[in-house]
Description:
Layout: H1 45-55, E1 59-65, E2 75-80, H2 84-102, E3 108-110, E4 117-121, E5 125-130, H3 132-138, H4 140-143, E6 148-150
Parallel strand pairs: 2-5
Antiparallel strand pairs: 1-2, 1-6, 3-4, 4-5
Helix pairs in contact: 1-2
Amino acid sequence: MAGRCAKGALPHCQGLRAVVRYVQESVLSKANLKQNPATETTTPSWLVAVRAAQSKKATDILVIDLTGVTSFADTFVIANGANPRQIQAIADEVGLQLKHEAGELPISLEGYTQAEWVLADYGDMLVHIFSPKAREYYGLERLWRNGKQLEIPPE
């Protein structure tokens, strides 16, 4: 039952849906979710995710606008990490920055343990963090070539 909140065991977990990462990472929950008036500007969530990935030295970052192309997501953020630890660090940072800067929590997080392809679902945005080998194999850029590639503004 590691990582799960038993009724009455952890008061901060009662009634909250949580995403648990590996042991060293704290639980992402709505408990510490604050509306920050300074971040209620027009900074899109995809840009917050891109900046977080850049801060952890992600490479080959690409943003694809899928509005009108598919109904399940508006934006894909795709990035590479050099090794499993870096891929996990990028995924952690994206999750934390989206929580603190945009007030968003992932609906689901897949592939974190294997760290070849981490997929974080934020509803209208999907964040894909690949190893170079997995990115080449799956070729999302080719599969979603009908989407519009968004330019990432300089910092």
